[in-house]
Write a structure and sequence with these properties.
single chain; 488 residues; alpha/beta; Amidase signature (AS) enzymes; 15 helices; 38% helix; 14% strand
């Protein structure tokens, strides 16, 4: 299957039609998705209708934009008008979106074609896609292992060539972590660079929509299309309207790349450490200067995140009460019973856990001790990054401390599961952009499993981390490797 650029060139040169390209994606879905379970719903009729329009344009000599006719998958917490949107939760099993998310409007304007909705942890709560009410997505490199989460479906769909690119959402690493575990590229933009309008909210001050692709160029093309101000989202608007794509080729010679001491901790997988160390050496060979930096409040990142995020989640999920939309319990005898039973039946274990934790930290008597203190630490962490970026252009870290883990290994131990986000949550706390890029493989149980490195940048400076990742992909081939799917 193709990158965005390759698909665009093939369509433009009439090497294949848009109908054939879309059909190839659905054929691949038919071959592998019974095993991988990346998708929750398909928009087949809509996809072929749009493909026919693109083919008609091509026949009339129309010059295609980079995303015109490109098949894309959408995480099932992003709204497409007239299409079911479950957020992988029973409580929304019958909900059909009545409007488009802003990112969907923007991609439609560019001519992209939507194949369907992808699986996720319920309401994006998780690091493995095991928390989906509709069953887990499997890692295409080893189907006994998780693809990461919460955007596991979107990452796996790109890795298995079921689509060319996809959209996910990132609240604490939910684009970057599954990108690393599935061997693809994933970008979490700066908070506010992409509109959240039409994203089913988990934690409103952390959530950010972003793209998955096979290459840095892929995610740059999609990011260019979806970024920018939106009157429907007051947190959006500071991203430059200029295209980032022309900046990709600027290289890293003379660039200063920071290596934070606090990220290279005891407990990180030694094989992953070596892959990241090798990537650092490659950047040195390309002419970058490697500088040690300190982010002194990093050790508080997980605790800070898992106080603020559940607090916001408990508030956002309060709207699902069985009265307005979503699942409603039957044969109830009072309003309170309707609330209690609808939520008890509709939410899964992880959603209930976070709602309860969030309600607790916001309760009178605990707010000052937990939530208020966490917000103070958040300010300190944001300052740490601001000071580090006075010394360096971007920061390089591992994306995940562990390789893809076996199903069931962490699901019954929430603290161990939360630790999978240890290297990614800081970017969401500070609101800075982050990207995961494939940088090697490790062997586990006789199978190769992908490793990702994380690049972090200054607020609204996606151009630098994208150029840094692109330079690495020009001299390495980790991102070109694909899992063997012959046995699926």
């Amino acid at each position: 299957m193709y990158t965005v650029r390759e698909a665009h060139e093939g369509l433009s040169k009439k090497e294949f039609s848009c109908h054939e390209l879309v059909q190839e994606c659905f054929d691949q879905i038919d071959r592998v998705d019974k095993t991988i379970h990346a998708f929750l719903a398909y928009t087949k009729e809509q996809a072929f209708t749009r493909a026919a329009r693109i083919d008609e344009k091509i026949s009339k000599g129309h010059v295609l934009g980079l995303l015109e006719g490109i098949p894309i998958a959408i995480k099932d917490n992003i709204l497409i008008s007239g299409v079911q949107a479950t957020a992988a939760s029973r409580i929304l099993k019958n909900y059909v979106a009545s409007y488009n998310a802003t990112v969907i409007e923007k991609l439609e304007k560019e001519g992209a074609i939507f194949l369907g909705k992808t699986n996720l942890d319920e309401f994006a709560m998780g690091s493995s896609t095991e928390n989906s009410a509709y069953g887990p997505t499997k890692n295409p490199w080893d189907t006994n292992r998780v693809p990461g989460g919460s955007s596991g479906g979107s990452a796996a769909a790109v890795a298995t060539d079921e689509c060319i690119a996809s959209l996910g959402s990132d609240t604490g690493g939910s684009i970057r972590q599954p990108a690393a575990l599935c061997g693809v590229t994933g970008l979490k933009p700066t908070y506010g660079a992409v509109s959240r309008y039409g994203l089913i909210a988990l934690a409103s001050s952390f959530d950010q929509i972003g793209p998955f692709g096979k290459t840095v160029e892929d995610v740059t093309i999609v990011f260019d299309a979806i970024k920018g101000a939106d009157p429907h989202d007051s947190s959006s608007g500071r991203a430059s309207a200029d295209s980032v794509l022309p900046h990709l080729s600027r290289g890293v010679k003379g660039m200063k790349i920071g290596i934070p001491r606090e990220y290279f901790i005891e407990g990180i997988d030694a094989d992953i450490q070596k892959c990241v160390d090798d990537a650092v050496m490659e950047y040195q060979r390309l002419g970058a200067e490697i500088i040690s930096v300190s982010l002194p409040h990093t050790s508080y990142a997980l605790a800070t995140y898992y106080v603020i995020m559940p607090a916001e989640a408990s508030s956002n999920l309060a709207r699902f009460d069985g009265m307005r939309y979503g699942h409603t319990a039957q044969d109830t005898r009072s309003l309170i019973e309707t609330y209690v039973r609808s939520r008890s039946e509709g939410f899964g274990a992880e959603a209930k856990r976070r709602i309860m934790l969030g309600t607790y930290v916001l309760a009178a008597g605990y707010y000052d001790a937990y939530y208020k203190q966490a917000q103070k630490v958040r300010a300190l962490m944001t300052r740490d990054f601001r000071e580090a970026f006075l010394q360096v252009d971007c920061i390089l870290t591992p994306t995940s401390p562990v390789a893809p883990f076996v199903f069931g290994e962490k699901i019954d131990d929430p603290l161990q599961m939360y630790l999978a986000d240890i290297f990614t949550v800081s970017a969401n706390i500070a609101g800075i952009p982050g990207m995961s890029v494939p940088c090697g493989f490790v062997m586990r149980d006789g199978k190769e499993l992908p490793v990702g490195m994380q690049l972090l940048g200054k607020h609204f400076d996606e151009a630098t981390i994208l150029a840094t990742g692109h330079a690495y992909q020009q001299t390495t081939d980790w991102h070109t490797r694909r899992p063997s799917l012959t046995s699926l």
